[in-house]
Specification:
Blueprint lengths: L4 E5 L24 H12 L5 E6 L7 H12 L5 E7 L6 H9 L3 E5 L4 H7 L3 H14 L3 E7 L7 H8 L5 E8 L17 H19 L7 E2 H10 L15 E4 L4 E3 L11 E4 L35 H6 L2 H4 L1 H8 L20
Parallel strand pairs: 1-2, 1-8, 2-3, 3-4, 4-5, 5-6, 6-7
Antiparallel strand pairs: 8-9, 9-10
Helix pairs in contact: 1-2, 6-7, 7-11
């Protein structure tokens, strides 16, 4: 089994109740057993080439002993291994920050905007900011991921300005809302309007340019880098390793899935850590971003694409927001064709 990307959901528990969580509600006591964690590493150990391990949840900082075990298991692998953790930062401690720094664990923080927006969408905004300050004091580089909804697109430039005060901040990733789990409910924030999204993204790009002109370590915007790379000829065969069939997500109880966003969806089950069936999640392969206006798009010849699980779960209009995202983030000196194209009427 060739696994290049291993996602470990260390716990189903979470101390927040994000309004759009695609995992739904966590289950009390649903922590990964040490034996399941060890078995997951054993499955990935047999591959060749570099391995990336993503620690997630729930909230992984609730089980620091499992983060330490994962770091020890990663260090013992014969293949090169990088380790990352995705956290809401509210439960971080000086001990965890030291562990991240000393074991070179990459840190991603879920942050949707300035404090008011963060409080509305996730809660405990003050604790998240305290967690960022803890990482800053410990010298731990971090990146943030924001979920794009109608509630936060107008504040994306303010997110950049907030991060400008953190020397250890390295970048921002933008995830479109996935309408799965709690996000499929009637009370979840809605996906953004295309025109408002474009406006918010352009304001964000302008703020980034201004901030980075004064920073030693620039803040990278993941989707802007992807857009520029696509225009300059970089081609990717698959959007992600899940689409290529080289990703495996492990639930706390040891069940296997294609990726973290399909976790719990038995259509994408791949057995268990004890009896893996890696051929089953192949349904994610072949899902591609398609738009009726592709012929007028600067990315017509080389589209950056979109997450296949988002394409799977979202309605057509929501899926096409990825087109708005890439087009809006093109720098002014790289407009390409018809840089301002909206998705009106794409409601199927």
């Amino acid at each position: 089994m060739q696994i290049d990307y291993l996602i470990l959901s260390l716990t189903g528990r979470c101390n927040l109740a994000c309004a759009y969580c695609y995992n739904g509600s966590g289950r009390p006591g649903a922590d990964m057993k040490p034996g399941v964690l060890a078995r997951a590493f054993a499955l990935a150990a047999s591959g060749s080439g570099p391995l990336h391990v993503q620690l997630t949840g729930g909230e992984p900082a609730l089980v620091p002993e499992l983060i330490l075990q994962a770091a020890d298991l990663a260090a013992g692998l014969k293949r090169a291994c990088s380790l990352a953790v995705q956290t809401n930062a509210t439960c971080l401690t000086p001990e965890l920050a030291d562990l991240f720094r000393d074991r070179f664990i990459q840190v991603g923080v879920s942050l949707d905007g300035p404090p008011g927006i963060q409080e509305k969408l996730r809660g405990r905004a003050g604790d998240t900011l305290a967690g960022l300050q803890l990482l800053e004091a410990a010298g731990v580089p971090f990146r943030v991921t924001a979920v794009l909804t109608a509630a936060n697109t107008a504040g994306l430039d303010k997110l950049v300005l907030l991060l400008a005060g953190f020397g250890q901040a390295r970048g921002i990733g933008l995830d479109l809302l996935v309408t799965k789990g709690r996000a499929a409910g009637p009370d979840s924030p809605r996906p953004p309007d295309p025109e408002k999204l474009e406006h918010g993204l352009r304001a964000m790009a302008a703020a980034l340019e201004a901030v980075n002109s004064r920073r030693q370590n620039p803040l990278r915007l993941r989707e802007q880098d992807m857009a520029i790379a696509a225009l300059t000829g970089f081609k990717r065969k698959d959007f992600c390793l899940a689409a290529a069939g080289r990703s495996l997500a492990v639930a706390p109880d040891g069940r296997l899935f294609a990726c973290s966003q399909t976790m719990g969806d038995e259509r994408f089950g791949a057995g268990t850590v004890w009896e893996p069936q890696p051929e089953r999640p192949g349904r994610l392969r072949g899902l591609a971003l398609e738009n009726s206006s592709c012929g007028n798009c600067p990315f017509e010849e080389n589209c950056p694409g979109d997450c296949p699980s988002r394409l799977l779960y979202n309605r057509r209009r929501d899926r096409l927001l990825a087109c708005t995202l890439y087009r809006a983030l093109l720098p002014a000196d790289r407009p390409g064709k018809a840089s301002k194209i909206h998705n009106r009427g794409e409601t199927k």
